[in-house]
Amino acid sequence: MSERSNRLFAIIQALRRARRPVTSADLAEKLEVTARTIYRDIAALQSMRVPIEGEAGIGYVMRAGFDLPPLMFNADEVEAIVVGMALLRRTGDKGLLDAAESVRGKIASVLPVDDGRRIDAGNLHVSSWGVKASAAIDLKAVRRAIRDEQKLLISYRNEQGASGSRTVQPLAIVYYVEVVVLAAWCERKRDFRHFRLDRITGCTFKKAWFRGQGEDLRTKWQAAQKLP
């Protein structure tokens, strides 16, 4: 892909992700070109019927509903995808592994032939050493519960071996090198708690929800953990 094609693609991506108008100066700084180059690129995209609206000095926006043409990646980006998907083996999350294989196939099917071959070239390898899959909890179902804001009843064994159960509002899954942790709001403690998956001995998906509260709780949890 040519330098200009890469730049046009980057402009489309930047505008699709933006929540407010993006100025030519911002785009020029990000892409390390002049504002005049951005003006020409925007005009070229508009001539190709890419639905970009706006003008110099005010900013540009992308109308909703625009679909990108077939995916285009450079060699480094293809290799980043390969390594990233391989690293998922370390999470012990079978659902993510299955999804990664589906993603691999979809990406390979829309890439140019040479780039598609690089997906399966076998020249990059990642150790599979990491977290073992849990037999007591289905991470795919837990991720769905986080999205749906569904409460869980978990049975848990603490570091001293004492067992107990908690009703929790699941907020996030944290994948460490050696352990996976469920971050949740504990209804009994009325505070955020972290539960190692290898110490969860059972999990029931309750017919109870905390809809409309998950995003706010997650923001507070991130602030408490000093996460970006």
Explain the overall architecture:
By secondary structure, the chain is an alpha+beta fold. It has eight helices and seven strands. The strands form two sheets. Strands 6-5-4-3-7 form a five-stranded antiparallel sheet, with helices on both faces. It has a two-stranded antiparallel ribbon with strand order 1-2. The longest helix is centred in the middle third of the chain and has 17 residues, at 94-110. The radius of gyration is 23 Å and the shape is globular.
Structure in a nutshell:
This protein has 228 residues and is an alpha+beta fold. The protein is built from eight helices and seven strands.
Strand order of the largest sheet: 6-5-4-3-7
- Biggest sheet descriptor: 5 strands, antiparallel
Specify the number of helices: 8
In oligomeric terms, what are we looking at? single chain
Q: Please, what is the average pLDDT?
A: 85
| Helix-and-strand structural type | alpha+beta
N→C terminal distance = 33 Å
Percent helix, as a range, is 40-55%
Shape: globular
Instruction: Please tell me how large the radius of gyration is.
Output: 23 Å
Please mark out the parts with pLDDT under 50 across 5 or more consecutive residues, or reply none: none
Spell the H/E element sequence. Answer: HHHEEHHHHEEEEEH
Number of strands: 7
Classify the beta-strand content into a percent band.
15-25%
Question: What distinguishing features does this structure have?
Answer:
5-stranded antiparallel sheet, 8 helices, 7 strands
Topology:
Layout: H1 3-17, H2 24-31, H3 35-47, E1 52-55, E2 59-62, H4 75-87, H5 94-110, H6 113-119, H7 139-148, E3 150-157, E4 163-175, E5 180-186, E6 191-196, E7 200-209, H8 214-225
Antiparallel strand pairs: 1-2, 3-4, 3-7, 4-5, 5-6
Helix pairs in contact: 2-3, 5-6
